[in-house]
User: What shape does this take?
Amino acid sequence: MKKLTPLLVVLLAFILLISTALPAYAGERQEENKSTKSIQPYKSMLTSTGGLIVEDLVTHTPLDLAGALVGSGITISNVSYKGADCSAGIFSGGKDIIGFDEGIILSCGDIANVVGPNMSDGISNGLDLPGDPDLTALIGEATNDATVLEFDFIPENDTISFQYVFASDEYNEYVYSFNDVFAFFVNGTNVAVLPGTTTPVSIDNVNGGNPFGENSTNPQYYRNNDPDDGGGQINTEMDGLTVVLSVQATVNPGVTNHIKLAIADAGDSSLDSVVFIKAGSLSDEPMKPGKLQFAKDYFKVKESMGTATVAVNRVDGSDGQVSVQYATSDGSALAGSDYTTTSGTLIFGDGQTSATISIPLIKDEIFETAENFFLTLSEPTGGATLGDPKVVDVIITEAPGLLISNTLSTSFIVKAKEAPPPPPPPPAQPTYTPPIYNLSEGDLIARWPGHIPLVNEAIKWLAKDSGITLQITDLAKWEKAKAQNLVPRIYTWNEKYQKWIALASYQTEPNRVKAINDGQYTGWMAIFAVRQPSFSDLSPTAWYEPVLNRANGMALLEGFPLNDQKPTDLLRLAKPTAFMSRSEFVAMATRSLGLVSKNDKSMYYILKDIQDVEAVLAAHFKDAATIPTWARNAVASAAESGLLTNVAGMEKSFDPTANITRIEAAVIISNVLDKIPGYQYKPADYTGIKDAHTIPFWAQNKVAAGVLVGDDKGNLNPNQQLNRAEAYTLFLRMIRTIGW
Amino acid sequence: MKKMRFVVLALIMVMLFSSYAMAVEAPGEDISNELSSQFTVEEPILIPLTLTWTLADSQETTVGTKTNFSVTALNNTNEDFYGVLYVVEILKDGSSALASDFTCQAVAEGEDPIPLGYDTEGDFFYYGPRYGFTFPGDPNTITTNFEVNFHNPGTYSVMVYAVQLPIAQ
Assistant: This one.
């Protein structure tokens, strides 16, 4: 034993030495098959503070990366990764740096090296890892330190697209020497090529030349950030990067396809290169980069303004970063005497639809008639095309004649007229009592007509009590109501909509009715006997009983007939724990909004009236034909009104029979709230919620405060299916917010 | 022949003197760089009318409040100017102001106010008859009172100057 102990110490020390000396190498990882719906989102883990933030595979799994990459219409499986843990991860804070905010990053070094500012001309992390044979074949020279993420995917359509930026510290001094390379192999073919070519994107194929400014290759796609060459303003360590480039590739719809994302050093293992890929951008929806065109046929500007500002619009799509070249040319106005020759590149960021070009005008003391010069757009990138007009007349005007005086100038700062003092308050109106007799149809919200008032007059209730108990005072009518199988309910008078609306109510004593006042209603109350269903499967002690009780009173809860009974029987099933399909949820949401009178234009515009339902459905949904008849109006109206925006791709592919999840429902309700006049939309703060990281990226910050709350264990369960009781809870919150 | 000898002598003397002159340099060694510049002197631009007004460089007002000011033009020459027009350029927040943004008119006691005209071709406002008025010299001063009323809030830059329209008009 004595002999063995020193040997063990030496062995342990050796193992420790070896393990710290080697890079954190993940080797090959294989993830189990998972669909997009089970992908763990990541955004909540990162907070951007103005620069790039990265997290590598010490924190995340390859499956996280693949999941972050895919967008709508794509299902993935068989995710595998080859490379070091430090060579792949996720990033955020890239919007003003690389052109999109967040996504995944692959490096042939350490992804931490992309974080700016640019302090080093040659940041490097050699990994001593092998290259990739496909990349080697692509550029015809040896590759090293390869990082490879690959997975299978099933697209719904025959085209996929995504957006990326390649960046490297090889720029500019090693252009044409070390040709670091990356590729996106879709079913074996590299699709990361320059627009309209088969040229792979690499150091040698996109650069500003070496020395910088000389002998450049495809410089229109290149952004210099090398401090030695006047760069360094872009907040990343990388010395050069491409503009946002787009990939479009043909794939086989409905079957398994394969994608391999790979990057490697070429020639040596020094100096890092990386590729950023936009989150959620791997989609089978066709990209729409749009058309670039001038906003008007001509622009008229006064010479005295000093600058001509010309607007360029991006129409018919705004996907991805695109750019266009512009240049002036002489008309009757001459460069150098009437205006300054101007040319350059106009860049539109992802989603940006307009930009302006400024051309300095030269003011002279010579008065001339109107003159013009031309401004021309050319060489659009990023998949954008040129629209019309692509050439525009810029007309310089000035007063005619010979200047014979000095020029006076001044400025007026004109403020808005101060609001007049508020008018004196109107004289107090005599208090009124809302009617309870001879109500018009619709003045009392109930499933069926035939209500009977059970009090002699409405009762004013001023306290915000959690419970309200009222006495039936018209006993004769109560007897009559009982004979008709009517049920007593407490109603509250809604002054805004001038309607009686039910509260959750219970007959507690022979002549008393109690209401659960969760909404803290005050004001006029009354008891009415109404015909309504009752539900055999509602436990009086269940948490959701008051919710469904009130929904029943508001004619929102239809229920299901018992198996052996006629549909018209009043005893039904509520099925509170059954899941709700997307069709059912949207139909109920629109029905809840329909409580508002169409005469109330200020509110009703939340839900648009649809004239041609079929046309709307066909325009929105690929699976329009599968939407059931009873839900078609509701779904069309919801889609056209924007209620399905940002809901898991629901706006384009509705999947009507799928059960709706808690987070999908919450975003729909939040979309409604966001349209309410005067509603102060505030995203829910899920700090402290244990499973906040499982909120899908499309729902980040799209849920209004108070709509979806955590359970008593501190979990939100966003991806769980929504049951009917939970759905009605959401509906009641929503209609309370719109003034009920 | 005597005459010929004299010419040869004269040529030799010229060559001697000229080579001496070329050899002359500034005394001492150069110890600084050399500065050089060029002045292009042009004729002064004569502006015959001098405008002044009663407005400050900047002022604040509110929508609907009328501001009165006067513009005085001094013709300090003996010449009469024909076809004179006051041009008024107004920008609102950096762009051309619209006619709906303001009302500006010349006012004189006992006379109907005369609003500024607008030239659609040249995109400018002006004061005066369409083809200008005659400004007599010897010397002469003309003061015109204006009233301006802004209808929309914003920052308005106002420039006023006089032009002489081409005789062809």
Summary: Residues 2-23 of chain B form the longest helix (22 residues). DSSP finds one helix and twelve strands in chain B. The first strand of chain B starts at residue 49 and ends at 53. Chain B touches chain A through 55 residues (CB under 8 Å).
